[in-house]
Amino acid sequence: MKCPYCDNKDTDVIETRDSEDLTVTRRRRSCSACEKRFTTYERVEQVPLTVIKKDGKRETFDREKLRRGIWRASGKTTLKAEDIDRIVDEVEKELIGGDVTEFPSKKIGELVAKRLKKKDKIAYIRFSSVFRQFVDIEDLEKEVHKLI
């Protein structure tokens, strides 16, 4: 690793720590030339995930967009920001863990709906009404009866 202060290529690792979820490794380093210390972070480079929209268009998976959608559905419910972040993390992790890098938006919606159903029924119904595109009150009624 090159020293950011003097560009020397000879540096020593003093300390190594992994993040709680083991996705990032933090290394404290020291330069043998100028003796300054600096920190580096290592993470695995992920292959970008692609979402296939209903109209066939493709776009890069955007975890913030997913988070905003869940946030809107969970307004004035018992769902906390940490719960939403956890759902987004779990969905992204499940997508990354698969064999493919392209996913229909429907699959992502189903993964979110499954988790919301366990956490907060109102947020689940709100999210499902948009995701499943309920056309009339009967569609909503059917979904509510499934919960009861």
Report what the structure shows.
Belongs to the NrdR family. Pfam families: ATP-cone (PF03477), Zn_ribbon_NrdR (PF22811). It is a single chain. This protein has 2 domains: 11-43; 50-147. The protein is 43% helix and 22% strand. The protein contains 5 helices and 6 strands. The strands form 2 sheets. A 3-stranded antiparallel sheet has the order 1-2-3, with no helix packed on it. Strands 5-4-6 form a 3-stranded mixed sheet. Helix 2 (81-96) packs across helix 3 (105-119). The longest helix has 16 residues, at 81-96. The termini are far apart.
Brief sketch in words of this structure:
The chain is α+β, with helices and mostly antiparallel strands and 148 residues long. The protein has helices at residues 63-73, 81-96, 105-119, 121-131, 137-147; strands at residues 11-18, 24-31, 37-43, 50-52, 58-60, 102-104.
Ends distance: 59 Å
Give the C-alpha Rg.
22 Å
Structural class: alpha+beta
The number of helical elements comes to 5
Flag low-confidence runs.
Answer: none
Number of strands: 6
Assembly context of the chains: single chain
The profile of the biggest β sheet is: 3 strands, antiparallel
State mean pLDDT (0 to 100 scale): 89
Pfam families: ATP-cone, Zn_ribbon_NrdR
Domain ATP-cone: 49-139
Zinc finger (unnamed): 3-34
GO molecular function: ATP binding; DNA binding; zinc ion binding
